[in-house]
Amino acid sequence: MKVKINTNAITKALAKCFSVTPARTPKDVLKYVRLAATEGCVSVHATDTEVSLTIDITPDDCYPVECPSPGTVLLPVKVHQICRELTGEYVEIIDGDGNITILGDGNRWEIQTVDIADFPEAQSCDEGALTVDGGKLLSSIQWVSQAVDKKQIEVRFSFGGVLFEFSDNRLTLAGCDRNRMSVSSINDTSGGIELPSRECVVPYKSLKSIEGICEGQVTVSRSGSAIQFSSPCGKVWARFLGGRFAQWQQIVDVPDVYSFSITVGPLSKSLRQAAIVLNEDSSGCQFSFKDDNLTISGSGSDVGTSEVSIPVVINRGGEFTVNLDPRFLSEQLRTIDAASTIEWIAGSADAAQLIKSESDVCAVMPLVRD
Hints:
It holds the Pfam family DNA_pol3_beta. The chain is an alpha+beta fold.
């Protein structure tokens, strides 16, 4: 195999694929990525057997591909390190007898590889599909992934993933931990998935790879045990997580006794300011709505106190006070434009507080203040 390709294009593809390869595995071959080169396309593929990523580099005016000798080879991470240090426009990759030759910047490297026969075949799903806008899918993933229980990521259980629920012309995503539930819906999808179960839990570790291919239209298909996301620039395959996901409809069904409209930018800033005095012994912050203002108060033993106020619009209800961990709100607001407005909905200070932004919602459980 011999291929000459744009250095920037192959470096980006290798970076994405090596983010999927496992750091520790009894199968050393999984630490490699597979490069398949033809005159029409260079495809880079990586897998840890639970999540797979394929990045396609097709010839165009920006990234021409020259492949006088098509073929397939396994690349170790050293090849990515070499490509990352190159400054020239093109790099050549040549497969020899157990070695890979890298030519770039007038220099030459010989890197050992392993037998490609031991590398697992690429998995795929082709049972039913729907199409969704890549930008909307990206926004939804970023919203719900904030609430995923990061301590459960390495455990194959539902709290370590994101729920994908399919219904007529709608795709709903949900993520949760023990303190909050984030939900996002995409209403204008096309196609449909006709299977006995219309929901599945996708592992958190696959989300970054999915975000990386959210360009143009993304096709989502699934089988009985896996889901696949395909776009013009690549494909992600992921095996479902086990366990039963929480009933998100019940959790985000918050009575709107109180409703407040707040601009995201000032709220994010006030959360950071109020949290400066907090320490490990602090019981979150107190949020008090009164006279078209929100006052956030915090305290930390051996540190001090804080009191930060911003204007709000009171839509329903009167004075209202609740205790929350400001980190949960801050993390959620990172995914929203600072100029946009959220609606804060509550039934009482002892129940979940609902943060709503267009078709996205996040339910945050209150804290008991000492």
